[in-house]
Design brief:
It contains twelve helices and nine strands. It is α+β, with helices and mostly antiparallel strands and 367 residues long. Helix 7 packs parallel to helix 12 and helix 8 crosses helix 9.
Length: 367
């Protein structure tokens, strides 16, 4: 089976692209562009592109695993080369060409690293018992990464991934498991057929083949939604209080679980905490129970991210927003400005205050 690696997103030669396809998932236009040497780059247009760009910058600040991203804007020469490339590659299929034309009618595009792997909803046919095993170094790291992503989602009110405080079933397509690499021009294609890997290969987190033997499988957050609640109205203020209260209860329950289970009992009773909702989500998707130790590792990852986020200041967040504003040379119909105006620093600081209180409680319990 032919497979691909990520092309460098910093030097895309669109004239050398060999083929392109378009995702059927979601309402945004997501293109997978195959370059020379079996490498792929992802191109995405979105109505919420400014918020997504901000989310990726915040992910980088908090060390949340996600694909590297850069912006192409309509004032760039590359913008026309990209659109010309995609139109030409997709012109053979009339239906796809029409769909692509609608998706290309945007002033800004994200160019993203291609993650060579699977979304979580497809991993049920793989080896989740090794990929997320609390008994292996690989599984421990991935479980902690899931926890960090879950805590990040609490900060930005991303309801479209893991169902921690939101009344939904979650969206496993917004978590990926695979590899990414920025400089892969000299590497051979690699298959991510998990079923063909030996247990030892999966356990050590290495792909079969010398060229990529040291590249581990990892969890990645994709399509991060930022939903800041506006409190300018009575209804908005009530919604913000309700959400802050839910996060506060969740995080307090998380801290309480660690205090109660540290050190864990020899019987390893169920992890009595809010993480169990994430545990049930993973079990439903993967048909695999991460168990007590898996819950604890996710909780540890959440606390790592909560601690990192708790030291963010309003100036830090304002700087990220300002950097996003300055990235765009000239706006188009206020698309970029309107998107960034939805990023409310005050909302984030409310959640950060909850995080600070949780870390203080944990530190007091440990003394």
């Amino acid at each position: 089976m032919e497979s691909f690696v990520s092309a460098s997103i910093d030097s895309c030669r669109w004239s050398q692209a060999e083929s392109a396809s378009m995702s059927d998932e979601g309402s945004s236009g997501v293109f997978f562009v195959r370059m020379r040497g079996n490498s792929v780059v992802v191109v995405k247009g979105s109505q919420s592109i400014a918020e997504e760009f901000f989310a990726y910058q915040l992910c980088e600040k908090l060390n949340i695993p996600c694909p590297c991203t850069r912006l192409i804007q309509y004032t760039d020469d590359e913008y026309n080369r990209l659109k010309r490339c995609l139109r030409q590659l997709l012109s053979r299929d009339e239906g796809m060409a029409i769909k692509a034309e609608r998706a290309l009618d945007r002033p800004f595009f994200l160019v993203m690293e291609y993650v060579n792997g699977e979304t979580f909803d497809a991993l049920v046919h793989a080896k989740p018992s090794f990929l997320l095993s609390a008994e292996t170094e690989l599984g421990q790291r991935n479980l902690r990464d899931l926890g960090r992503i879950a805590a990040f989602d609490l900060l930005v009110n991303n309801w479209d991934r893991m169902p921690s405080v939101w009344p939904n079933e979650g969206n496993a397509r917004n978590i990926m498991f695979g590899i990414k690499s920025a400089s892969v021009a000299d590497l051979e294609p690699v298959s991510v057929e998990y079923q063909q890997l030996s247990d030892a290969d999966v356990e050590r987190g290495a792909l079969v083949g010398d060229s990529l033997s040291t590249m581990p499988f990892r969890v990645f957050a994709v399509d991060s939604v930022v939903t800041c609640i506006c409190n300018d109205t009575a209804v908005g203020a009530e919604n913000e209080r309700n959400y802050t209260s839910k996060v506060s209860d969740f995080v307090a329950d998380l801290v309480s679980s660690f205090v109660q289970t540290s050190p864990p009992s020899s019987l390893q009773t169920p992890f009595e905490g809010s993480v169990t909702r994430i545990q049930r989500f993973l079990q439903t998707v993967l048909l695999f129970d991460i168990g007590f130790n898996g819950c604890r590792l996710i909780g540890e990852g959440m606390l790592e991210c909560i601690k990192s986020a708790s030291i963010l200041t309003s100036e830090d967040l304002s700087d990220i927003v300002q950097q996003c504003r300055q990235t765009v040379k000239r706006d188009w119909a206020e698309v970029w400005t309107t998107g960034l105006d939805k990023i409310r620093i005050q909302f984030f600081m409310q959640i950060i205050s909850v995080f600070k209180a949780a870390i203080k409680l944990l530190e007091e319990a440990e003394t």
